[in-house]
Design a protein that fits this description.
CATH class: Mainly Beta
Number of helices: 1
Low-confidence stretches: none
CATH topology: Immunoglobulin-like
Strand content: 35-45%
Structural class: mainly beta
Mean pLDDT: 85
Distance between the termini: 89 Å
Number of domains: 1
Shape: rod-shaped
Largest sheet: 4 strands, antiparallel
Order of helices and strands: HEEEEEEE
Radius of gyration: 27 Å
Helix content: 10-25%
């Protein structure tokens, strides 16, 4: 009888120690990105960016290199936004855009 109890106990230990396959599912972060493309020498000190008349920040202007990694990118929330870019207090770009999750929108500056 003791052998049966010992076998049952060992069997239970093996069953409890097996956890099976665990999977983890994650979605995309709810953010998108802006990259400002132009001639960096024309915009010394960067450009001033306004998103939806709420968020203001200074951004560096990158050259467009399709064969190289991106330059500086700036995170914003997904959805519809009005982007206003100014340099020396003059508006050089203003447009309503829509960006989805993990999308990088290139803003081409004149």
């Amino acid at each position: 009888m003791k052998k049966i109890y010992i076998l049952i106990a060992i069997g239970l230990i093996f069953l409890v120690s097996c956890t099976g396959v665990k999977t983890v599912t994650t979605g995309l972060e709810n953010e998108s990105f802006l990259e400002f493309i132009g001639t960096p020498s024309s915009y010394s000190g960067g450009v001033d960016v306004n998103v939806d008349d709420k968020n203001n920040f200074n951004a560096e202007v990158n050259e467009d290199h399709a064969d190289r990694p991106k330059g500086n990118i700036y995170a914003i929330s997904t959805g519809k936004h009005v982007i206003t870019v100014s340099y020396n207090k003059k508006v050089i770009y203003k447009k309503q855009i829509f960006v989805s999750a993990q999308e990088t929108k290139k803003v081409l500056l004149p």
